[in-house]
Design goal:
The structure is a homodimer. By secondary structure, chain A is α+β, with helices and mostly antiparallel strands. Chain A has six helices and five strands; from the N terminus they run ααααββββαβα. In chain A, a hairpin with a 5-residue loop joins β3 and β4. The model of chain A has no long low-confidence stretch (mean pLDDT about 90). Chains A and B meet through β3, α5 and β5 of A and β3, α5 and β5 of B. Bound molecules: zinc ion (ZN) (4 copies). The structure holds a DNA duplex.
DNA sequence: AAACGAAATGTTATATTATAACGTTTTCAC
DNA sequence: GTGAAAACGTTATAATATAACATTTCGTTT
């Protein structure tokens, strides 16, 4: 993760994402409180996997007096609602690219720049499920992370 | 990872694993020093993913005066040689089940007991590779981790 | 053998990520 | 309104990992 390209989502897309989150939580009765919504907004806006302390810093920069548990609790909630995924290999959190869909996600994570690409996937999940059944493992629908190099980083990062 | 079942590999299997590591490193010219070999032995013996500090404690219990870098450096080396895999989702390290083979591994990790099962896989890797190519990602042959529940933990862990 | 440079290890300190524990406030059903 | 549950604030600490630099070991060259 050397040359981390800064990339922000367009405001319109952020608003759309948040509106969908509002609708989803309203439908399920989950409470997307202002605090949680603020954290989600920060995750969505960054448009890439972000660390918890990075989010915490942004919260503080906006005048919020918070401690780590604040952010981690919000992230836990957002993960439960399927609005955010944790990328274990990067210790980072990324907004789900298609929340609400009971999806089987495949997430490519670029080890150069830290960006991630989430795909709706059936083929990979099917082959994993088949292999899992063969050895008796039960696998829920959590996203599968795959490390790699993104197209931009394959060229000399322009 | 509540009821972590303790499980040790049989001494004969450990010796076999170490012998293979010796042969592999001899062939490539990599220096499997006593320290590195000792760390590998501890990883192999435990027969499941183990944390770096867990290994450090075991080193110390055997009279070795070491600090975290000691273990982390050895683990780095062992990973480079393909003798050990890091399980990102568990912050743990596990001995490769078939070192030397240029394998495409799929690792099922039980979130209940922490055990892991490494499989030689072609179907899953093939579908991942196809998907990666479609979006321009380049994916090296690192193991893919899949969270799940192992057969033993599905029953009431006997 | 002596000298040299590179690799490995020792050592200390610190960075990074995440959670425990407990008190206070807010929310919601009754 | 009242009580219970959920959410949030706050402090401290756990767990994981690395930076930085000194020392030792090792293989090679002279
Ligand atoms: Zn998703
Ligand atoms: Zn990239
Ligand atoms: Zn392996
Ligand atoms: Zn299990």
């Amino acid at each position: 993760m050397s040359g981390l390209r800064i990339k922000y989502l367009k405001p319109a897309l952020v608003a759309e994402h948040l509106a969908r989150a509002d609708a989803l939580c309203a439908a399920t009765g989950a409470r997307l409180t202002p605090l949680r919504r603020r954290v989600l907004e920060l995750v969505v806006r960054s448009g890439r996997p972000v660390g918890a302390y990075e989010l915490l810093d942004q919260m503080r920069a906006c005048g919020h007096k918070g401690a780590p548990p604040t952010v981690y609790r919000a992230l836990d909630f957002l993960q439960q609602q399927g609005l955010v995924h944790r990328i274990a290999m990067a210790n980072a959190y990324v907004a789900c690219s298609h929340p609400g869909c009971d999806h089987h996600a495949l997430i490519f994570v670029c080890t150069e720049c830290g960006n991630a690409l989430e795909l709706e996937e059936t083929q990979v999940k099917a082959s994993v499920a088949a292999r899992a059944e063969a050895v008796g493992f039960r696998v829920p629908g959590q996203p599968i992370e795959v490390a790699g190099t993104c197209p931009l980083c394959q060229e000399g990062r322009p």
